[in-house]
Amino acid sequence: MDRRGTVLALRHVQRQRGRDGGRQRDAGGAAEAGDYEALHELGGYLLEGLRSRFRTAGIPVTVQGVGPVLQVWFACGPIDTWRDARAGAHADMFRAFWEEMMLRRVLFHPSQFEKLFLSTAHRHEHVAATLAALDDAMPALRARAAGLGIAR
Question: 83 and 10 in one domain?
């Protein structure tokens, strides 16, 4: 479902809430319509921030995704299938990325085969702090990429 479809579905839920006297239909509550738009914008900010920083550093990376769901592959081209990932993505470089980010208190999954997810709990300042941590980690990442023979 694209962003417009998400917003339309959310508006349907909001109308339903209005019809049943405002009672919540689920235990967790529903997000507001603007939350999904903000979440997609935040995902775009993270995606472009990752891409631009690795490009500037000369480290081959493919960052792809839609809205708040991203995938980071240390590869020279797009990864469309599991076979592409096995053949073209550098697991050792992903491990280096994970380790360097963890040292800077940014925690995410340790496997290149998993996705990064943003939620409505994340704010612009969280993504900015993540990108700042990446900036701090970049000299170490460049050195590790050079050691693996993949830096440009």
Answer: no
3-class SS of residue 64: strand
Can you tell me the distance from the alpha carbon of 129 to that of 141, in angstroms, rounded to the nearest whole number? 17
Please tell me the distance from the alpha carbon of residue 9 to that of residue 112, in angstroms, as a whole number: 32
Question: What is the value of pTM for the model shown?
Answer: 0.77
Residue 36 lies in a domain: no
- Tell me how many domains the chain contains: 2
What single letter denotes the amino acid at residue 104?
R
> What averages of pLDDT result for each successive group of 10 residues across the chain (152 residues)?
54 52 45 84 97 97 94 92 93 97 95 93 96 98 95 82
Range of the domain at 89: 41-147
